[in-house]
Each structure stands twice: as C-alpha cells, then as structure tokens.
User: Fold these one by one.
Assistant:
Number 1:
Amino acid sequence: MEDNTAAARDESRQPTAHDLEVLSRQLGRPVRDVVEIPARCVCGNPLVAATAPRLSNGTPFPTTFYLTHPVITSAVSRLEAGGTMNDMNDQLAEDAGLAAAYRAAHEQYLAARDAIGRRSGIGAVPEIDGVSAGGMPTRVKCLHVLVGHSLAAGRGVNPLGDKALDMISEWWTADKCYCDGAWDTTGEAPSRDLSRHGPQGLPDIVGRPAPVRKSAGSGKAAE
Ligand SMILES: [Zn+2]
C-alpha cells in the first residue's frame, strides 16, 4: 500500500466536530466516545461510527462499529423484519464454508477493535477479549452490526454483512449519496447536555408529575 493512501485514510478516520454533529443528527441523540469514522458516504458524511472499546466512564464496549446513516439503518431494519436473520442462521448451519468465513470475520472484528484501541490510546480491554458483536462467530443476532462491519472493513471480510448490503441495494448503494433529507439539518443538533438527563428527565420536560413517594393524606397518590 502506498504511504500517501494510508495517510489519507488515517486522516479521513479522524472525526471532525462536523462529523460528530452529523452523527448526533443522524441518530437523534448525542454521540459519545466516537474515536473514528471508518466508513463515509461518497459526499463525506459518516456512514459508520467507531466507538472506543472502553468508554470514558470505564465501561468495556464490544460493539465497535455502529451503523449511523438513517437510509441504511432503515433498509437493514426492513431485512430484519422480513426474516433475513433466520435465513442466514439456517445458511450458517448448512454451509461449512460460510460458517468458516463468518468465524474469520469475527476474528477480523476483534483485530480491528484492538487496532482502534491502540490508535486511540485506550489499549487492551481484557474484559471483552474474544467477544465481538451481532451474534458472531456462530449466529446472526443483529444485521446492523454486520453491515456496519462490512462497511468499515470493506467487501470480502464479513460474508453476511456483504450479503445484507447486496440485499439493500434497492435502497442504498455505496456509489451514491443518499444524505439529502435523510436527517433533520435544522435547529440545534442534539447536545451533550440533553444526554445527561436521559429518560429520567423526561417527566419534567413533558410536564408529568414525578412519582410521589410519600403522600400526606390518602396514601394512594402514586398509582
Ligand atoms: Zn452523502
């Protein structure tokens, strides 16, 4: 590989402030601990976010590649709803070659995660040694994970992620930009501040009273 190609790839992996804003708009929530952008639309927008194998709060995090582009995530959801995962699990049980390739994809996932841990200065995360995601190495439990892996690793690494990409080609292909109108670009992006409140903050926002622990009179205030 040419040095300048590798350098260009390293540069495109680095998430910019704009990337992080786009990610939070794509997902409708703030993103945290994103350390690389391993796959981009032809227009440059992120397709996949790579999360650190250990979050900043110390939690080990095995799911490295997260599919963020709404056009792809909804297309993959359609496959899931249509029973594609059951079909793939049947194929894994019947086809030894496919099963071996899928196991190799699992190993590549672990190696890619180790490399990301090294590049981001996090180092080894022994708690998740041998643990990948999406059901690998023997099952298919989340197609989004497999497609995220295929987009991050490139074709020819994850056979079932590649297959799912082929199956969504009616809705998304790598050679075109599908970003226009795919997420809300108006107003402020979901901010870090909101994430701190989480679902617990919701009753206040929507004006519902918080549950009452003690009631002076009836004793039946809550429920
Ligand atoms: Zn695009």
Number 2:
Amino acid sequence: MNIKEVPPGTEQASESLGDSEGKVEAQKVVFGFRTMLIATLGLLLAAGGVCSALQGQDASPTSSAEKSPEDQTDVLIARVESAMRALKSKVMSSIEEMEDEQLKKDLKVPFDVIGRNEANTDKNKLRFKREVLAIGGHHISDNPYDFLYELRDIDDGVAAYAHVSRTMILGKSLDPDNLLDCLVIYHETRHVINDTHFRQGIKSDAEFAAYMRFFTRREGEEKMVCVDDEFTAYGIEIELLNLMLDGALYDAAVSGPPVDPEEVRALLNARTDQIGMIKLLIEFSEVYYPNGMNENGVYPRAFVNLVAANYRNLGYSLYINTGKGTQVPFQTENY
Ligand SMILES: [Zn+2]
C-alpha cells in the first residue's frame, strides 16, 4: 500500500513568482511514494507558429460549460500535452545544436516527463480519487516521474506544483495557446522532476514525514519555499525562453540590445496582464547570463540572490534542501 497520512493542514504549492499563494487542500494520499521509495532503494518562434492566435482569455472549448469538472480536466490535460509536444518540436533542433551536454539533457527532460506522463492512466486527479481511491485502490506505476493534474482556481497565476500529492495544478485561466503559459508548465515540470529526485534521497519514514511536513502549511504558519528548487526551475525556464527568443536573452546580457518585454509578450502570444512575469524573467536572465549554471550545478551568485530576494519580498521564509528530505534555512553564505 502506498497510502499514508500527512499532517492536517494545507498543502503548499510551488508556483512561479507573481502567482497566487497556491493553497491546496491537504491530501491524505501520498501519490506514488512507495513506488518512489522502492525505486530509490534500489527563436524566435514565429508568432502563431506553435499556437494558434489567442482568442481571448476565455479561450476554453465551447462545450466545456456542460462538461463535468473531471471531463474539463481531461480536455485541458490533452491541450497541455499537445501544446508541450508542439513546443518541444519547435525547440528541439536548437537544443540539439547546443554544446553543453548537461544543459541539453536538462532542457529535454521536462518535455520527456510530460510526454511519458501521457500514458499515466491515473493522471486526472479527480477521476483517480473517484474511481481508484474511493474503492481503496492505489496508484501503481514503475515511473517515479508520474504526476497528477488538477484543474482549479488559482487567484493570480496559471499553474503550480503541489509536492505532497505530486499534482500539477492547472489554473482555470491557463491557455495552452499562450506560450508563456506553456513556459510556466515547463517550469512547474522541473519541480516535478526535482520532487522525484528529492524523494529518491529519502532513506527513512521519518525523513519522508519531514519532507511531507515541509510542504504542508498549517493555519498561522509561515510561508516557506525551497529556493534551490526555484533556482533550477527558473534557470531552465530562462534557458528555454532564450531558445524561443533565438538567443536574445543571452545576447542582451552580454552585449546586445536590451530585450523589449512588449515584443516578447507579442511573440509568446501572452496576455497584457502577464507583462510583469515577462519583465521578471528578463531581469533574472540579466544576472543568470552569461555564465548560467556551471558544470558543478552552481548558479551565478547575483541570480541566486535576486531569485531569493523576490521570494523574500513576497513574505516567504527561504530554505534549501539537504538532500535527505529535510530543509535548512537558506542564507546567501550557505548556498
Ligand atoms: Zn517554481
């Protein structure tokens, strides 16, 4: 059995800066944990190129109003998977041309994880809860990268990742025809991958409980974030955006002309209310490049400090993973 109790409270979700608090109901089931533990122990894209023209913020399927939430989720999952397949095919040749083998691999993995999860028959969380959990079943998979999707309201954002139940939360405003939204999905998928790797470092039930506890927020408790999880997610997000912009972010950081956020917004088919997120990514890229992540997995100090400062400004207490399922407070000096 892989059913475990987690402490009562609110599952904390990792989301992009500018997103909502991402509160999620505590789940009583730890999805896929036993599978994980067993495994452990053992260019600008031409506008409209990937996506069709934005049809407005309510670009949802016309029949969705009559569909059940479970069926609506199926529709959105299929659109997300299709959009990510299209994005992958657009950037793959640029990825293949890169010289840095580690970066090449890191850029491909999120696409592969989403692609493999297409075959996960339990990925629709509502259906999984109704058809499997309700009759006492549990998820069985050999793939430790499997995750769930759930469609729900997110106040100010399009997607988030909830570690406790390994759920990618798709906000109701998420538009797979919007490349910035696809980029957010890509960022959140890096959290899925990091979560798998963090779990693979866990060696005991106590460490596992501590890991679950970290991502469960009780009433009145501080907001916490593992910033090392965010450094990697933003790092790879910037790398992909740079490829999508044909190297413009890198060039701007080195010597080129500054990147115009409005131009990026138009190219990504993003909404006007997403300009803040675009500006933030550009700002991050200015300190991420020219070095980016080095061969030891270390990020530029100015990038680390800037990402950390943004979370601190949002009222988060910052932590880093120890690699054993536990977290310690982040300080510039200890990272
Ligand atoms: Zn994140």
Number 3:
Amino acid sequence: MKQKEILSNIPFNNQDEDHDVFSYETPLRPDAFEKDDDLKIELIEKHFKEIMHILGMDLSDDSLKGTPRRVAKMYVKEVFSGLNPASKPVTKLFDNKYNYDQMLVEKNITFYSHCEHHFVPIFGKAHVAYFSSGKVIGLSKINRIVQYFSKRPQVQERLTVQIAEELKKALKTEDVAVVMDAKHMCVSSRGVNDTNSQTGTANFSGKFNDPAIRAEFLNYINSSTVM
Ligand SMILES: [Zn+2]
C-alpha cells in the first residue's frame, strides 16, 4: 500500500532490488564503501587528471595542477558525501509538549544536488510539511535531511521521495508532504539551453492526500509571508 501511495505521486523505473520491483533507493553496489575516503580521493584524482590530460590541458600549469585533487576531495567529502550512510544526520525527537496539532511547514530550504545523468548541479528550494504524531523534530534536522539526500548524484523525483520517506521514518507519521522546485544545469547551460525552465516534484502522504489540507500547504508555500 505504502509503495502504491508513492507511485501515485511519482512514477519510477524498475530497479534491480531484492524484493521491491520499485525502489527509491540510490543504486549502489554492495561494495560501495569497501574503499575508504582517502583511497577514493586518491583514485578519483588519478582518473580526473587523465580526463584533463585527454582534453589536452597542460597539468604542469600552476592554475591546473591542483585541480584533480580538488575535484576528488569535493566529490568524496562534499557534493557526494550523502552517498555514505555514515553521513546521515541523527534525528532526535522531542515530546510535543505544547500539543501543537496543526500543520508545520518549513519552506524555502535551499538545496544543491547533482544530476546523475550529466554530473552538473541541480539546485533549488525544498518545502516540507508534517503533522506531529505526538513527537516533534528540531527544525534544522529537516534541513539536514534535505541536504543529506541532495549530496548524491540524483534525479529530482527520487530525491523528493527519499526525503519524504526519511521524514516519515524520523517523525513516525505518514502525514508528510515534500515539494521541490529546482533548476537543472544540464537543461540550462547545455543541451536545449533553456535558462528559464524549472522542475517541480511533489510527494504527499497521509493527511496530505486530502485536497483541502494539500491546498492549505500549497497556499503556505506560495505566500510570501512565513505562514
Ligand atoms: Zn542531467
């Protein structure tokens, strides 16, 4: 049932998973973390140097010689650090002492990701809402969950579902909504060179399947005031 709900929002391609025909997991090999970060940086540096060399660049130039290592470190330690489950944020829940039972919205969460088809940036805003199950989460943890899944080679559809699923788990509720608006550099800076188009994705579960509640959330995120 849960899977069906997700699929009603966003369709997915079949992926090679043990049981589920459909999966929102990032496709990773079982040996993905057998190499440690230092070794990964060393290997990527070597290969990136080769790419630059093939392109004809003079790697003895002062400005270029540090680039392979910089790129390798950036990949492993920054922009793709969310591949490693070790960087997953630890979420702590608090009692909802004030019995706040309305929708909580956190909007305009800035995120930077990379398109897995071209390895160029996807960036934009995520908007998240939930109803408390009796527990609440520190607000900055919502941002951290968004950042964690963004720091992977991604497609926006999967990123949206991964954030929604993690929030449901963390918040122990199905009543979660995620909307993402993003610019894809692979669309704006190359290919069709469309600098204006923006891509929107959404994942609604639980109470957010109610059109009135969904409308209330969308109204919040489209208004210029905070709530
Ligand atoms: Zn792309």
Number 4:
Amino acid sequence: MKSYLGIDIGAGSIKASLVDKSGNILKQTSRTTGAETNEKEFLDSIVDIVSELEDPSLVAVGIGSPGPIDTENGILIQSANLPLLANVALVAHLKKNFKFPVYYNNDANLAALGEYRFGLGKGSSNLMILTLGTGLGGGWVYQGKLFNGYRGSGMEAGHVTYLPGGSLCGCGQRGCTEAYFSASGFLHRYHETTGNHLSSAEEFFENVRKGEKVAVTLLNEGIDALSQLCRTLIHTVNPEKIVFTGGLVKSWDLYGNILKEKIHGLIFPIFRTYTQILPGGNVAGALGAAALCMENHE
Ligand SMILES: [Zn+2]
C-alpha cells in the first residue's frame, strides 16, 4: 500500500494528514503558526511534521499554501497571514532534509484536486472550482489533470474583469470580480460606501441577514459579478460542474439560489440543462494536498 502526505499551510496552523489512495487518514498532526512566525520556525515546523508522519509506505509529500507562490521553484513568495515570511525556498529545504518527491501548489488548485478526488467533483472529466474566501480563486481539473497554465499561474479567475475601471482590487487593478465577491472585496466596498469598517465577512453577512440596505446592495452587486464570471467560464471551458468552496460558502443560503438563477439567465439554453452549480468545500485542505501527490504517483 502506498501513502501520501498532504500538508495544508493555513491561517493560524499547518495541518497535515498521511492518507492512502482512497483518502483514508492513517495519521495526522498539526502545528500552530501566526503573525509572529519567522522563516526558521516555519521551516522547522514543516520538517518536524514530515519526520513525525514519515512512514515506509510514504511515496510523496504535497504542500498547499495561500499565495502568491512560485510553483516552478517551490517558493512561498508571500502570505498575508504569515507576514514575516518572504521568498521562502520551501521545497528546496524539504528536499535537503528528505528523499521524497515534494509537490507544491496554491490552495485554490488543491481545493480543485481535493473536490475531484474526494468531494463533489469526484471523477468529473471537466471540473471547475471557485474558492470564495479572503480572495476569489479558481482551479480547473480537466480529464483528471490540474490545469496549471504556462508557469503555474493559470485560472486566476478572480481577476477576470467585471467592471472596467471599477473598484480597486487587492491585485492593484480595478474592476476584478474579486473586488466585488470576496471577503476582502465586500469589506473594502462596505468601507468605501459607508466609511465604516466591518471586522469580518461574517459580520457583513450578518448585516445582510438583518436586511441592512448597504450590505444587501453590495451582496447583490457581488452576485452579478460572480454570475458574469461563471458565464465566462461556462462558455469558455464548458465545465460539467462548478463547485464553490471557501469560507463564504457558509452563507450560501443568502445567495446560492439567486446566483444559480442569474447564471441560468446568462448562458446558452443547452448549458442550463446539464451544468451543475454546487456548494462544496467539505474536503480538508490536507486531503487536497495529498491529491496533488496522487496526480503524480498513481
Ligand atoms: Zn484583481
């Protein structure tokens, strides 16, 4: 039996699971991280995790993290939640310490692989996932393979234009879909409109739930933006399923049905008959990272 080690670098912790081909967890562990974690502590934690979960059956290690990252050279360029880290040569460091192949990719791509192997996209020949979190990410698994683009930066779906010259996006451009539908987008636009800061996306959706006019208007505009993005993706790559993952899926009841309706109103009638729009996101990040190993070591 082969096993695969998936490591998910998230906000506040690094979670890791040793799993078999079916996604059964054989062992798991985690380490705490935070704003004060420096490069040495960060790399030591990951080496520690691999040493703890190392097993004779282990064939490869997969790692996922928020970006931006350099997949080709295995470098974590920057992370909003780990501000002391810059240009960390993560993969090279692990290869120095262990003999296993190490694979590294961003969390949206790994969410796509996780849904493809173990979630709502299981076995789909054309699966699109959109992560609705701090930002808006995309991942595309086509015929069992992750689409990476020329140098690993494919499917930056959140930066597809919704409104030329529109709201400022975290990427520095204006009018991206992410500026209209993401936690950072909602909070930024709420502040722009009211002058008030909200502490989190939860607070924003709570205001929607209470019927606060500004929040409801901003959510509706966000739904418009997201449905236009889905329209573009559906007409471009003809996915079987679009699965949504990420923290904002918790509030799916506030926008899911309207989103589906709007998308249906924007696409060719034939696409309405079979394109599935689904809230997912129940596959753990560490499983997605393990799925990255499986893609390379069947
Ligand atoms: Zn952008």
